[in-house]
Amino acid sequence: MYNEADAKDVVTSRRNFIKGAGALSATALFGGMAPAVLAKSTAPLKIGALNTYSKVYAALGNANLNGMNLYFEQIGNTIAGRRIEIVKEDDELNPQVGLQKMKKLVESDSCDLITGIQGSNIAMAAVQYMRQSQAFVLCSGAGITDLSYTGLPYLFRCSTSSYTTLSTMGEWLYANLSKQAVLTASDFAGGRNAMIEFKSGFVKRGGTVIKEMYPPLGNNDFSPYLADIRSTNATATFSFYAGADAVRFVKQYGEYGLSKSCRLTGSGFMLDGDTLPAQGRAALGAINALHYADTLDNAANKKFVRDYQARYKEFPNVYAEYGYVAARIMHAAIEAVDGNTSDKNKLREAMRAVKFEAPRGPFRFTPETQSPTHNVYIREVAEIGNRITNKVIYTFPEVPEPAKRPI
Amino acid sequence: MDFFVSQLVNSLALGALLFMTAAGLSLIFGLMNVVNLAHGSFFMIGAFTAMSIIQLTGNFWIALGVGWVPAAALAVLMERVFIRPMYSSGHLNQVLLTFGFIFVFGDACRFVWGTDIRNIAPPALFDGSLHIGGVILPLYRLFVVLFGGVVGLALWWFLERSRIGAMVRAGVDDPATAAGIGINVPLLFAAIFALGAALAAIGGIVASPILGTYLGMDIEILIPAFIVIVIGGMGSLRGALVGALLVAFIDTFGKAYFPDYALFLVYLLMVLVLLTRPQGLFGIARG
Amino acid sequence: MKHRNQLLLIALLCVLLAAGVFASDYVSGIAAEIMIFGIFAMSLNLLVGYTGMMSFGHAAFFGIATYMVIGLGVHLGISGWWGALAAIAASTALAALIGAFCIRVTGIPFLMLTMAFSQLLFAGALKWRSLSGGTDGLTGFVPPDLFGVSLAQSAGARYAVVAVGFLLVLLFLNCLVRSPMGSIFIGIRENEQRMRAIGYPVQRFKLLAFTIAGGLAGVAGALYAFFNAYVSTDILHWQQSGDAMIMVVLGGTGTVVGPAVGAGIFLLLKTVISSHNEYWALWVGAIFIACVMFLKEGIWGFVSGRLRNHSRRPRATQAPAVPTAEAKK
Questions:
Q1: Mean pLDDT of B90-108
Q2: Distance CA B77, CA B97 (A)
Q3: CA nearest C231 in A: which residue?
Q4: Is residue B233 a part of any domain in this protein?
Q5: In 3-state terms, what secondary structure has residue A384?
Q6: What span, in angstroms and rounded, lies between the C-alpha atoms of C250 and C288?
Q7: Among A130, B77, B226, C115, which residue has the least CB neighbours within 10 Å?
Q8: In chain A, helix, strand, coil percent, each to 5?
Q9: How far is A241 from chain C (nearest CA, A)?
């Protein structure tokens, strides 16, 4: 049982049948060649796209899929003679459901590879299963640092590892903005980990953390915390919030007049395309770090943004870039093995070797972790051409990822 | 002292929001003995409708003026077609019915408005903050407090002083006799259900500049609204007000002074009230 | 139902369940999940259908069992089997504790109170992240071995464990509702005042029902831990309790096995619809509403009612507006 994510990805089963029949007759004529191999390399390439397509974080899943589809359409939806078929499954941002859906994609749908997985909790919950089933996974979403250190040979990640981004931000903040900061984040593992990673760069350089605050997830009124920040007379804050919390925090930060006295800084995920429209002018001037910005001035990004806008009538965000890069990686790797995805080791070698100029800048996999080595950009929220987005104020080129778990 | 004052204003604003949302719920229970679990959905529909109106017209006041209409219309439809046949089935079955509607309305909103997080900007008139002494008071929150007060007064006048209000109170006390003296009870029920939904929708519209407009806000507001009417008492307007203020105070000051335990305090209060006085502080004791 | 028909049905059930061991991993996985939630829904029905107590906080007992098994395994290295025993004991104890408070009220306040306690537990799990793993949950649990076969590796073994659990719970509940205690529960649902007047210690029996229901939910929770090897706070959210309620209503409150059928319908609908359409919630919600309004006896209740009508037995009682459970299946 499979389904189509987009009309362009519809399998023409007749074409496959003819291909299959042709292959069989070819082997009948030439004999000796194992028909199974031939049949496999013309069978459709099934890619499982496991994301959240319902509820609150659906925008991320949809952007991811859009980015992927954009790239695949540009290469005619075929890799090495195999027609691409995307099987979309919704994890409902619930690790229990995500696990079940992944099992379905791997076992019932027999996908050649799985991609997507925006939720870090879902990714971690699936690690045990990935180990057991040896499924080939190219994660194009979750940023949790732990995912780089699972040691799984067939797990790749093309999104980001939050450690590199946040510790780099910590170092930059110390050197350029303030030697002291107040940290705030939503009280969940993602928020707390983000602060730990920021501190590892900031404190290592000599920075002092004045205070740390962790409002509950889904908190709607930040004023007590903001008043507290004001009382410390800090000149900079570093934060991480997601979704509606990010919108509320940034808006209230402005409402309570903190932006003048205390610079708002945070993780780039708090101030990107999915939240900026709602945050509006309150976000202007906020400094953040991410491995991508839609204003990046390189050829690959210019093309990506232009094509994405033409196709989807809106600007791409970081989740769309993940999907686009994932598709490009799959293209390069699968073509290198001539469409033979059944030999996982060969595919792995091919994928490890993938290197190219992505919209985010140069992309390659860190050999020890199979997670990205890419640029980290320090960005500032600004109004550019009638739209609120991020401009890059500093680039850390190709920041290496630690080979062993750093904290 | 500054901190206290600004927190006071915040809790009043939050209380006003909770009051507007919970008042509708309380009214519906008081009159119709129906616990509408889909109440949060009307809250969300109001917010999204207002967002669309603002996108079209750029005017917050128009959105506030008419943004509640689709929610109220849906409520009438829901009452007529689905709830009315169920009156004889006991109110626990009605609870289940409205629970099903949470799913339906939630997906319907997603279908119409998509999945992005949105926001309504506060009206230009109230954008910005007042700086008094060392205290910063966002103008919009002051507006919310005032507006909540106005709505509360209007509701009070409606129930206590108007003819329709008298009919509502009669219908609450004794539907059979009310029908006997010529009050069109079914029409009244539909009207009150619509009013409750409209109140929730207005609550959603007014809350949006503070809370945002996003899928999932229906479920997020549901528990607080229920805590309010459980504590204040179902069927009582005064109860909704007192309950809302109580919950808002505990939540706001709890977060400020006992950040680790704020969440528990409110639930504990709910449990305490349910155990000691199940009908709530001002509620009608019902079976 | 005739004795012979009953035996036939049980035999059929056993055959079907045995066949599941040989089905594909994916199919047996779905079947196992249905059975786990079937147990959960059936346990809720003991409260809702048989004793007339509508609870919206049942997820607490399911969740605490899962957390116990996974938590003991991950933090203390305790084997899943012992963990399961501890889990069922914990959920039974918790149900006794919470029940003692909740039975003081009835109707809507009871509903709210059960929800409040469940939310307290949920908030606690969110807060004590070191114990519960917070929203990210606890990973790294290794399911135990069953006679040398690792539950982690063998889907068939997992299925077998769940199937046995399901059968045991089904048998237990069947015996319970036919027993004198079962009749008392039904009597309480029908008319609490009358039962009290006759002299039954109604509160004690309500507490008993609540406790047993909680313990059975704990069985489901423990099995879920084996099945998933993972737990997160979502399992304690009131939406989980709501889902159980949907399963009960879909299947029907009138029979013991109805809710399990409801669980199957709910999960299959969700899985099938979500593979084709993003709006599964809308469809499931609509079907649920239709059941509440028109099919009060639930889908299984409807089917089994039809089957019963085909036999010559005259109907002993009229079906009242509120769905009922009769002592007979």
A1: 87
A2: 14
A3: A96
A4: no
A5: strand
A6: 6
A7: B77
A8: 45, 20, 30
A9: 15
Per-residue pLDDT tens digits for C261-305: 999 999 998 888 877 777 888 988 999 999 888 888 888 888 888
Chain B contact residues (CB < 8 Å to C): 35, 82, 85-86, 88-93, 95-97, 99-104, 106-108, 110-111, 219, 223, 226-227, 230, 234, 260, 263-264, 267-268, 270-271, 274-275, 278-279, 286-287
Quote the minimal CA–CA distance from B237 to chain C in Å. 18
Set of chain B residues whose Cβ sits within 8 Å of the Cβ of C246: 99-100
The encoded tokens of residue C111 equal: 């509903």
Q: Is residue B278 part of a domain?
A: no
- Whole-angstrom distance, CA of residue C69 vs CA of residue A273: 41
Q: Which helix (H) or strand (E) holds A321?
A: helix A318-336
Lookup: tokens for B278: 């199940």
Nearest CA in chain A to C23: A108
A chain contacts of residue C24, beta-carbon cutoff 8 Å: 107-108
Coil, strand or helix: which one is A87?
A: strand
Which two three-digit tokens encode residue A227? 């008043």
CB contact under 8 A, C234 and A95: yes
Structure tokens at C308: 């019963």
Q: Residue B102's domain spans which residues?
A: 2-217
Contacts of C321 in chain B (CB under 8 A): 88-90
What is the distance in angstroms between the Cα of A202 and the nearest Cα belonging to chain B? 26
What is the number of residues in chain A?
A: 407
For residues A128 and A130, what is the distance between their CA atoms, to the nearest angstrom? Answer: 5
* B111 within a domain of the structure (yes/no): yes
The answer to whether position B259 is within a domain reads: no
Q: Does A382 touch chain C (CB under 8 A)?
A: no
- CA–CA min distance A56, chain C (Å): 13
Q: Is residue C296 part of a domain?
A: no
- The boundaries of the domain holding residue C132 are 11-236
Chain B to chain C Cβ contacts (< 8 Å): 114
Q: How many domains does chain B have?
A: 1
Domain-embedded: residue C4: no
Distance CA A397, CA A377 (A): 8
Please say whether the beta carbons of C157 and C145 come within 8 A.
Answer: no
In a domain, C151, yes or no: yes
Q: pLDDT tens for residues C259-269?
A: 999 999 999 98
Q: What is the pLDDT of residue C263?
A: 95
Kindly list the residues from chain B whose CB atom is less than 8 angstroms away from the CB atom of residue C100: none
Please tell me which of the candidates C25, C137, C278 has its beta carbon nearest to residue A53: C278
Q: CB count, 10 Å around CB of C127?
A: 18
SS3 C273: helix
Query: Who contacts B35 (Cβ-Cβ below 8 Å, separation ≥6)?
Result: B25, B28, B29, B91, B94, B95, B98, B234, C108, C111
Classify residue C246: in a domain, yes or no: no
**φ/ψ (deg, to 5) at C96:** -65, -40
Q: What angle do CA A354, A355, A358 make, to 5 degrees?
A: 120
* Chain C CB contacts of A96 below 8 Å: 228, 230, 232, 234-235
| CB proximity list for C188: less than 8 A, separation 6 or greater | C51, C52, C195, C200, C202, C205, C206, C209
User: Does the CA dihedral B218-B224-B227-B232 come out positive or negative?
Assistant: negative
ipTM of the complex: 0.85
Least CB–CB distance from A280: residue in B121, B256, B263? B121
What are the residues facing A183 on neighbouring strands?
Answer: A212, A238
Tell me which residues of chain A have a pLDDT lower than 50: 1-39
